[in-house]
Structure formats: structure tokens, C-alpha cells
Amino acid sequence: MLQVRELRRDERLQLGMHGQGDLGVFAGVRRFGARSRSRVGATRHGGPPRSSPWLTLSFALLFAFALSGCIQVSLPLGGPSPLRESVVDGKRGPKIVMIEIDGAIRDADEPGTLGLGTREGTVSRVRAELELARQDDEVKALLLRINTPGGTVTASDIVFREITRFKQERNVPVVAQLMGLATSGGYYVAMSADTIYANPTTLTGSIGVIFVSVNFAGLMEKLGVEDQTIVSAPRKDTGSVLRRMRPEERAQLQAVIEQLSSRFQDVVAQGRPNLSRERVRELADGRVYTAEEAKQAGLVDAIGYLEDGIAETKRRAGLSEARVVTYHRGREVRENIYSEVAPPARLALGGPDLVASLLPPVRGPAFLYLWWPAVE
Fold first, then answer.
1. Which CATH number does the domain 83-211+244-370 belong to among 3.90.226.10, 3.40.50.1820, 3.90.1640.30, 3.40.640.10?
2. Which of 51, 81, 222, 236 is catalytic?
3. Which partner for 73 in 115, 304, 326, 342 could form a disulfide, CB atoms 3.0-4.6 Å apart?
4. More confident residue, 290 or 12
């Protein structure tokens, strides 16, 4: 269930210790509802502000429909162009393929503004790049450049499996370079690597699962709106935004989350053999870690920049010289090791990216390996 709330004291302390002052914006997002209510319904004559239940309901329904994926326009503009190779570092020698895991990890394409164009889903893009690398005998290693808060449980698991399978089939080393954010599903994917480097300012961790659900039953009762959903079984509409969740439903969803969380911990225990299963369980309380904290805890191997990750990849592959290559489509730009594909612009509703900041980066209900501080 979605809760709009203040940061707890322990959360403030943790973020404060990390020195991430800009993360205070999340508290501001959580207070948005309270601030907006004081302004809704204010008269032009300077009278006291009055709340408008219909405006509140409109915003609530917009939020609910966006969560369920009802607000979406898609226009087919043709399939993606073929992948092409660009050399972004080095001039000679075998190839190191740099795979970019950027933005929310999804198993479906992301629509652009007003449905114009799409951004390729992470699963299909990674699969396509690995298939191209399989055909190239000059590829001697993989470098994962990870900059993501995570994504859906299934998409994160598939990407992890695809990279692991490629590593085993080709018998090549894999190095993960964590950039600004490599949390939850991003860290899950990093478990496919032999060595993990973190940028000095990386935030990582957030090992755990979240299921996002909202409940407008109280508001509907005040407005005289009644839920008339018809189901074939009592739990068919578990998690519905139109009614309160029953205790047995909450317990059942919690059991699912515990199973998915246990799988996450198993993957971490396998990927970090220096950590016991019990230690992984202690670290998997959902918190984020700075690069230094992650290194001290054994979640990463070293702290360094992307150039250091490239040097480690060469070392593990036994290469004195190598070309770092990436794959791109159409107008995507790949000029150097930091080049990335710009995400599609979001449609701003009620302010720049306001609604986008409140909505999860997936359509419809989903279990997520995701750090998403806008909700609990």
C-alpha cells in the first residue's frame, strides 16, 4: 500500500551520514499532498483555502490509472534499426564489449512522450547485444556499466541470467562498474560479474523487494463512489486500488515478497562467496550503501572510476591492449566510454516530471527489485 509520509529518523540519519543532501527532495515529494491541499480551492478574493474533493479525486484517479497503465498512447513507428559497433576506447587488440544497464530495468519497451517512439526494454536490448557479441571471436571480456535504481524482479533476473550464460559459454571474464546508482535490481545484475568496481560516489545495495499498491477506498466513501468489481474468487482482486486490503491478502503478498527476497539473497551469496548467507541476510535490510560502506561490507571489490574498471577487465582477460566497444542503433551516439543513450522525454503533468517522480518506472502492478524512495 502506498504511504505518503515523512522520512523516519533512522532514514534521515542514514542519508545524512551519506552526505546526500539532495536526497532531501524525497521528503519534499512525500509532503506534496499536504502542501497541495492547503492551496486547492483558494478563492480569487483571497479567502481561506478550501479543499476540492472532486479535484482531489481527479488527481487520485489519474495516479491510480497511471499506476495500472491505463494512461498510454502508443504509435507504431517501425522496428529498431540494426545494432552497430563503435570503438569507445583503445586502438588495437581484442575487444571488450561494454554493456550498458541504464535506467529502470524492464522487460518491455518504454513509450516516449505521448506515445511517440519507444525506448528499448532492457531485457531485449541486452539479449540483442550479447547475441552480436557471440558472433565475434575477437570478444574476450564483458564490462557492465551499471547506472540504475533497479526494476522488475523478472527483468532483473533475466538480465542476470543472460550475462551469466554468456560468461559460461564463452569462458570470458565479466567486470561490473557501478556508476552513480546501482541499487536493488542493478546490484542483482552485478552479481553476474567476477569483479565489482564502484565509483567513489556510487550508491548501491537496497537488497530487497517492494510491491507498490495504493488505496482510495476512504476517499471513494466520502464521495459516495462504490466499488462494484465482480470476481471469480475472493482473492482475484487482491491489491485493488478500489478497496482496503484484507489481512489475509496482505499476509499472502508478504509471503510472496519474502520468497523473492530470499532468491535475491541467494544470488548475492553466490555472487559474493566471501559473504556468508547469514551476513547477506543482515545486509539485506533494504538500505543503500555508499561505495566505501559497500567495500567494507564486502558488497563490492574495489572503488575506482570507469577507466579503472577497464584496466581490471584487461587484467582479468590477460590483455595488454584492447579495444572497448559498444553497440548502438540508428541515431544513438557512442563517442566515448561515458556516452549513453538519452532516455525519452517524459510528459510533465502538473509541473516538471512531478507525476513521473511519483509513479513507479513500470506499468501495472509488479514486484520490484527497486530503490524508489518516493514511496514506502
1. 3.90.226.10
2. 236
3. 115
4. 290
